[in-house]
Write a structure and sequence with these properties.
Length: about 350
């Protein structure tokens, strides 16, 4: 879409501005919401993208479960072709849904497959979204032209992890366990961000910048900074890490240090403990051990969070008194003395 072309123009201008600052002898810190997922683990495992062309020619890792090997052979033996055929023939239509909490009926768009009343996914807000506005079931690929350059928004034959297994069930009746789905996601999962955006992040690394969180917490799973509040995704930690402290390498090496452990590994009473890198610890952190409250479907907005005891690192980049859609994962990677010195 045109928005991707405009975004890439902004990102290229931003990178050029940082390069100019370095030529003047300055060190650069880029902090904020880039709305880009740099790695596969920077988004929920089920929403990661799978490059099926790569997956089919890559054997399961050593020690993979027998079900994982069965899946790989099944896809090679025609399972993926059945999914492709299913999605090539998908159609779209509206469905009237009874919104009981809102006491009204609403029109939503659905993806229909197999020439029958078989729906894929959940209802979509618009026809454009159902047709792949967020790359849902859109294996055809998508490109965008920007100033004479072709940007790859989504390569062909890519599909989300959760959608591949959903389509296998619809097209073939074949069911695979949650365990093997996570195994596939861990081995092959790619970020949902468009390849041109991910490549821009890689250019920053070649320019000599460090992704501070990934460097300090390389094995952390499920540590996200943004969730779809409209769908209450924060409640189950189905989010993405799109907020960054990107730091010039020389500055990072000279000044950065890891602070306190990531929040969520031990409950407030100290009765239970989990691995700090685990998905469970990440869920604890983003919901304040279950004290975060969902946005009510009947309306009224997000609940007030001022009276709830939260982590000291809760509000982060987006100070707020409600349970918002963004938060900081950890303190900035520099000690307080660094910032105090810069203030003077």
């Amino acid at each position: 879409s045109r928005s991707l072309a405009r975004k890439m123009c902004f990102l290229d201008a931003l990178r050029s501005a940082m390069q100019r600052e370095r030529k003047e002898g300055k060190k650069v810190i880029l902090a904020g919401d880039l709305n880009i997922q740099r790695r596969g683990r920077d988004c929920f495992w089920g929403t990661r993208m799978l490059d099926m062309r790569s997956l089919l020619v890559t054997s399961p890792p050593q020690g993979a479960s027998s079900e994982h090997v069965e899946l790989h052979n099944y896809l090679l033996d025609g399972g993926w072709e059945k999914v492709r055929e299913l999605l090539r023939n998908r159609t779209f239509r509206t469905q009237t849904i009874n919104a009981s909490l809102q006491k009204r009926t609403i029109e939503k768009w659905r993806v229909v497959v197999d020439g029958k009343e078989a729906f894929l996914g959940k209802p979509f807000e618009s026809e454009g979204m159902a047709k792949g506005g967020y790359d849902d079931y859109a294996i055809e690929g998508r490109t965008v032209e920007s100033h004479g350059e072709i940007l790859v928004a989504r390569p062909p034959d890519q599909i989300r992890v959760e959608q591949l297994f959903e389509c296998l069930k619809v097209a073939t009746g074949k069911l695979f366990s949650l365990k093997v789905q996570k195994e596939v996601s861990k081995q092959h999962g790619l970020p949902r961000s468009s390849p041109c955006c991910v490549q821009w992040m890689m250019k920053l690394e070649r320019d000599g910048m460090t992704d501070s969180f990934a460097k300090l917490y390389p094995d952390a799973e499920g540590r996200f900074t943004c969730w779809d509040q409209y769908k209450n995704r924060r409640y189950v930690n189905m989010g993405a890490r799109i907020d960054y402290f990107m730091v010039d390498n020389s500055l990072f090496d000279a000044c950065a240090q890891q602070g306190a452990d990531l929040y969520g590994a031990a409950d407030p009473k100290g009765d239970k403990k989990w691995s700090v890198d685990s998905e469970k610890a990440a869920l604890n952190a983003c919901t304040a051990f279950g004290r975060w409250r969902q946005a009510p479907f009947e309306g009224g907005g997000l609940p007030d969070g001022t009276k709830i005891l939260l982590s000291p690192f809760w509000h982060g980049l987006y100070p707020t008194t409600v349970f918002g859609s963004h938060r900081r994962l950890a303190p900035p990677p520099f000690p307080e003395r660094f910032w105090n010195k810069r203030k003077t």
